[in-house]
């Protein structure tokens, strides 16, 4: 009986991994919106109208939806890159937060350098986040520790340290927020679709999608990374340095998360606000799972998650439901996809220790 059940599971998993399976999960999540509205709202028709149409009703809501998708694109790319190599980065929360704070501090310090200082600050912040993720890759390469556990634990520690730094040594006493000083006006990205928060950071996110796709499918290093992720033993026998593709993809994954945090500072927040990025790391992970680790699919996946958040915010403002409806819907998507992907990942690691 157990063997028959395992065979049945193997037949079901490919269907979930297919595009049709992903679409089915999205439809289940949207049905969840319908059910929750009927159960929790006294005016379900009004709630559903603002949930589904609210994000598209004017440039303010639409622009903010696109803006919230921008860091998710960077995070989704980061996780996708790690997963393509057979690694798994669970440290996005700390990496995007840490990258944002380091970028902010260096942007303030390097303000006299102008544009060069802005680029240097962004690179330093992203490199800091990359080093956090790369450390998990190094520990796996050196002692075969699980990068899932180490990246998660390091991230939790980093979040606490960043909270202390923002609310303590680097807090700006002239503001009512728990935040650092603001970055120079010259470092701030141009606004798009005012009065929304959308900025030209969206264009940089799209460039990052093209760059990651080109790296994975147009370069020798990207080919070796994908081969290592598909079958590390085969890659090793083929002469690929598989140890390199334990550390490098994790570093690049954290680097992309750090870019997401840096561009959020440059385009939206202009200072590191305490816990401003809470949830971005996990949502970036969910985006990568929906996209099945394909860079080109990260964009629609990020837009879907941003649409859910924007719809919930619109419904909260114009009806009688709370914003937690978005968290419930996102958790449904996350649970359905991550349970299958993690099972597949563990099976692959069991075959290729």
List the helices and strands and how they pair.
Elements lengths: L1 H16 L1 H22 L3 H10 L5 H26 L7 H18 L5 H29 L3 H21 L33 H18 L1 H11 L1 H6 L6 H26 L10 H11 L4 H24 L5 H28 L2
Helix pairs in contact: 1-2, 2-3, 2-14, 3-13, 4-8, 4-11, 4-12, 4-13, 5-6, 5-7, 5-11, 5-12, 6-7, 6-11, 8-9, 8-11, 8-13, 12-13, 12-14, 13-14
How does this model look, in words?
This protein has helices at residues 2-17, 19-40, 44-53, 59-84, 92-109, 115-143, 147-167, 201-218, 220-230, 232-237, 244-269, 280-290, 295-318, 324-351. The chain is an all-alpha fold and 353 residues long. It has a single domain, classed as ABC transporter involved in vitamin B12 uptake, BtuC, CATH 1.10.3470. Helix 2 packs antiparallel against helix 3 and helix 4 (59-84) runs antiparallel to helix 11 (244-269). The two termini are 28 Å apart.
- Outline, from the CA principal axes? globular
Percentage of residues in strands = under 5%
Q: What would CATH call the class? A: Mainly Alpha
Q: Compute the gyration radius: what is it?
A: 21 Å
How can the largest sheet be summarized? none
How far is the N terminus from the C terminus? Answer: 28 Å
Q: How many β-strand runs? A: 0
Order of helices and strands: HHHHHHHHHHHHHH
The assigned structural class equals: mainly alpha
Summed up, the domain count is 1
Q: Tell me the CATH architecture.
A: Orthogonal Bundle
Low-confidence stretches: 1-17
Average the pLDDT over all residues and give the rounded result: 87
Q: CATH topology, what is it called?
A: ABC transporter involved in vitamin B12 uptake, BtuC
What is the number of helical segments per DSSP (H or I, 4+ residues)? 14
Kindly state the percentage of residues in helix.
Answer: over 70%
């Amino acid at each position: 009986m157990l063997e028959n059940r395992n065979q049945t599971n193997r037949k079901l998993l490919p269907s979930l991994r297919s595009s049709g399976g992903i679409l089915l999960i999205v439809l289940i999540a949207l049905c969840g919106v319908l059910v929750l509205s009927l159960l929790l709202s006294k005016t379900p028709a009004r709630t559903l109208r603002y949930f589904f149409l609210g994000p598209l009703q004017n440039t303010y809501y639409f622009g903010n939806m696109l803006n919230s998708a921008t860091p998710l694109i960077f995070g989704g790319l980061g996780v996708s890159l790690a997963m393509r190599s057979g690694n798994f980065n669970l440290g996005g929360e700390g990496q995007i937060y840490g990258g944002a704070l380091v970028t902010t501090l260096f942007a303030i310090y390097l303000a006299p350098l102008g544009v060069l200082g802005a680029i240097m600050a962004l690179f330093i912040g992203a490199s800091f986040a990359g080093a956090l993720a790369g450390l998990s890759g190094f520990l796996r390469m050196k002692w075969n520790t699980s990068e899932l556990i180490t990246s998660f634990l390091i991230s939790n520690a980093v979040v606490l340290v960043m909270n202390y730094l923002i609310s303590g040594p680097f807090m700006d006493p002239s503001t009512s927020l728990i935040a650092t000083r603001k970055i120079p006006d010259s470092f701030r990205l141009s606004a798009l679709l005012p009065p929304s928060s959308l900025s030209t950071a969206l264009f940089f996110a799209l460039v990052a999608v093209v760059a990651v796709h080109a790296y994975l499918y147009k370069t020798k290093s990207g080919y070796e990374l994908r081969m290592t992720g598909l079958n590390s033993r085969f890659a090793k026998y083929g002469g690929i340095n598989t140890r390199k593709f334990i550390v490098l993809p994790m570093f690049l994954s954290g680097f992309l998360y750090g870019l997401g945090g840096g561009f959020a500072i440059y385009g939206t927040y202009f200072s590191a606000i305490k816990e401003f990025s809470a949830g971005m790391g996990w949502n970036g992970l969910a985006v990568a799972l929906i996209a099945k680790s394909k860079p080109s699919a990260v964009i629609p996946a990020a837009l879907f998650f941003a649409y859910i958040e924007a719809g919930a915010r619109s419904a909260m403002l114009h009806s009688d439901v709370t914003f937690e409806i978005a968290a419930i819907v996102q958790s449904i998507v996350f649970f359905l996809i991550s349970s299958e992907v993690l099972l597949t990942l563990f099976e692959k690691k069991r075959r290729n220790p």
